[in-house]
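CORE FACILITY INTAKE
Project code: CF-77B
Contact: R.S. (postdoc)
Sample description: multi-component assembly, four entities in total
Requested service: structural model of the whole complex
Turnaround: standard
Below are the sequence entries exactly as provided by the requester. Do not edit them.
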Amino acid sequence: MDKNNTEQESYKLVSREYQRHNTQIAVKENIIGSKQFHVIAGPCAVESKGQLLETAWAVKEAGATLLRGGAFKPRSSPYSFQGLGEKGLKYLAEAREETGLPVVTEVMDVRDVELVASYVDIIQVGARNMQNFFLLREISKLDKPIILKRGQCATLKEWLMAAEYFLYGGNSKVILCERGIRTFEDYTRNTLDLSAVPALKNLSHLPVFVDPSHGTGKWELVAPMALAALAAGADGLLIEVHPNPENACSDGQQSLNLKNFALLMEDLRRLAPVLAREMVEQIE
Amino acid sequence: MDKNNTEQESYKLVSREYQRHNTQIAVKENIIGSKQFHVIAGPCAVESKGQLLETAWAVKEAGATLLRGGAFKPRSSPYSFQGLGEKGLKYLAEAREETGLPVVTEVMDVRDVELVASYVDIIQVGARNMQNFFLLREISKLDKPIILKRGQCATLKEWLMAAEYFLYGGNSKVILCERGIRTFEDYTRNTLDLSAVPALKNLSHLPVFVDPSHGTGKWELVAPMALAALAAGADGLLIEVHPNPENACSDGQQSLNLKNFALLMEDLRRLAPVLAREMVEQIE
Amino acid sequence: MDKNNTEQESYKLVSREYQRHNTQIAVKENIIGSKQFHVIAGPCAVESKGQLLETAWAVKEAGATLLRGGAFKPRSSPYSFQGLGEKGLKYLAEAREETGLPVVTEVMDVRDVELVASYVDIIQVGARNMQNFFLLREISKLDKPIILKRGQCATLKEWLMAAEYFLYGGNSKVILCERGIRTFEDYTRNTLDLSAVPALKNLSHLPVFVDPSHGTGKWELVAPMALAALAAGADGLLIEVHPNPENACSDGQQSLNLKNFALLMEDLRRLAPVLAREMVEQIE
Amino acid sequence: MDKNNTEQESYKLVSREYQRHNTQIAVKENIIGSKQFHVIAGPCAVESKGQLLETAWAVKEAGATLLRGGAFKPRSSPYSFQGLGEKGLKYLAEAREETGLPVVTEVMDVRDVELVASYVDIIQVGARNMQNFFLLREISKLDKPIILKRGQCATLKEWLMAAEYFLYGGNSKVILCERGIRTFEDYTRNTLDLSAVPALKNLSHLPVFVDPSHGTGKWELVAPMALAALAAGADGLLIEVHPNPENACSDGQQSLNLKNFALLMEDLRRLAPVLAREMVEQIE
């Protein structure tokens, strides 16, 4: 269960040995895991219809191909904002209607899996739930793409074993997302382990995304680490964007404002072709 | 959510400021959090009725006051033994009938909370679920003692905020259990942070237990660390014991056999009085 | 050089396989590594003759058998107090004259080894210099006991390989001292890894001490962790004591005042016999 | 001294507040810290004149602007290859004569500083010696560029305080080199913290290099992480290259062979201009 595992613990279906070619996952016109480089952007938490729509239109114009937003928020303290719940899901669905962007949100409660799945295009499993095995089993029954974030202190092997739960359960549309690990360094919120990207590309056939927002915890470090993730071979990014970060209900300090996000997208567009990647504009 | 929290995140009800006196929790004749020093012992996983009963009688004779055993096992790999499920719960209930020992087991699925609660005397939340907030909320509605294990990479503050979910939800019968944190050291499975014991005694009024089995991952280190936990001020221990560890379905390498457990209990009995602690024999 | 070493890297002379019996080191009448439990106490830094003497007499009366004090201080910042240098060594020698306590101090510069050795009874190598291999080689030529502190991020294997440099160089009077490792936890200054004590007892024949002052960074955690170290099987303790910690030039927050140190010594005297250890009073 | 420092500990001269413009360091025709992107390449250890010259010519042809090679090797075990010592320095000087590449090597012993300085163009301080303060002081007296590698468990603040020793001592030609930190992850030798690059660019005016060889410990991860370092804003790279890694005296598993190094240089040349960086060819 921990680092020094008994040999019985292992993974198979997610491994590169088991499947040589890269897994490609279609989300509407987008093919994740192909040469396309995708950016999933949006607020940490859905706070209001207005906030979500403003962000959705802005990130779409800037070139994001998917919209993210938290309806159920995992919060360390019971006194922190816990999210809008189903109302947040409704806003996400409406934002999709209006902008045409597929939407991604996190599910935390095994009892909410069906509900969340009925609203969104991609289900996210957060770092805290990477080893919530009953949640993994329930989600594995869905025919929907999954983003599996790396646990804060999960080894690559443990992460792949968690992903194995999905394929073992019948759902192979799994995207791995590096979001930083916990170390002694306290200047950054986490330590973004970009070497996980090429390492996972060797070990597994699953697409790999990077979340530089949680990975650094500081908005001013997000753009350089986003470019670095692209250069390291990531298939896409998950980025927190907020119309005005200083008033965000959560994670303001690590969210890009609309202008800085647009600048980052321009840099990514310049860099992608040199790395044999193409940025897709969202087609309506 | 991570180390560098926004100020809004905090805890209150679990703090020493909020309640000066130690919380004491009655489990049958036992008063956890009093001068009594309690040892919860048993196998990592309930494997069979025979294995559980043999262990139960042996740990009781040796002086353990509660019986532990896993019915639902969190396993990093889907290919590992996942536990006997409800059958395991039934065996635990039978072992209590026969030996009179109150029983402790872990619940992982929010949908199993009622079921598990109907069988056992203390509900355990494992390290992987310390921040499974919906599970915490569901358990907080019960009128049953809880053991909350520390997450593998949880700070003391995050651990106390997780415990706050229980008190905030109405259940104040919470026992904190240090079980080792993840570090760079790979000789031990985890690094047992015994300084958490006096630290938590300063920060909170809740009882603190220590699990040297998961904390070290090596049976030969369990006894010295168990004595150290008592000396550091812990209110009790959680120890994995198996009739023959080499054939255990899980965690054999960190389980004490019956003989070594009995020797440890003798040492604890010698040490306790010097530290103003008393070992209770289980009364039938 | 790092965690994943090539097999060529190893240790031999320090191992329990190479020498079954415990190494015992005589320092005047004291036999370190025997049944005796020794406490080395004193200020982090020698600040003045008065401060050192007051501390020396007080710790001796309380039962300490050796005096520690820093003359050369490793400081992260060039703007921090760097120690009194040779004047500090002179004060240590005078304190030994007056009190009869053997003295311990740290050497940092390979060019100071002879000088420091000419003043003190035990040479200390600090955590930052655990892998300062030229310093280790130079010290290995001395016929003087050594205290080798564990590096902040050294594995047990790396620590033993560092100790191997001394035995390989001809000096086998080596005492290992656990002083805490660096982890994500920031409530304590370091995470005191007490499991290192029984682990090292299995792996090596060298005496093992514990420094709960650096290991916790908080004076209020020092006493419980000192008792825990004794219970875990340590051969002794290294404790920072200061006449008035709030005015200390360094490490005030982790230093015991004279009264609290005396109380700790009483507790240790009560505990030792139960653990088959004897506390020696310093003989003049 | 550790994470929780007293306020007295700090840095000033290395900070961006103290000097707004980037420090630029001339090494022959090269200007480190300018728009130029420099690659320092060579074997972990100088093993023979032939091995060094073959590598030197190859990395020069591929576009490296400086040659690295270890003469004094810090080895965890006394039984590992310790380097050729002064003979290695002579080979480095000869390689410079023949190829015109400025050379870089590590100094470990304060007594060797003058000797090493007399042979090489840039002095390297390794991770293990980042807080070897007397060594830092001695080197600060030289009028020679320094590469200061990050300690395996050094925070950014501690790293900058170590660099402060050089500027405080009079030598401001300091290059910081991220080489990975120690974490729980054991798939890689260290965890390369690329977020340190933009973070240091905000905190300090010193040039920042990245060593993906030690940072990953696996040659197959070196190229993607080298590209990522460039994208993250690094001023250059330090890369281990060996004519046949499988027979290297040390670090073979993380060394690129000549062919793979040449391929990496081509990728860097394609990427640099997009990031407003220019790759310089070494001028003879």
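Facility notes:
- Chain D is about 35% helix and 15% strand.
- Chain D touches chain C through 49 residues (CB under 8 Å).
Invoice: internal transfer
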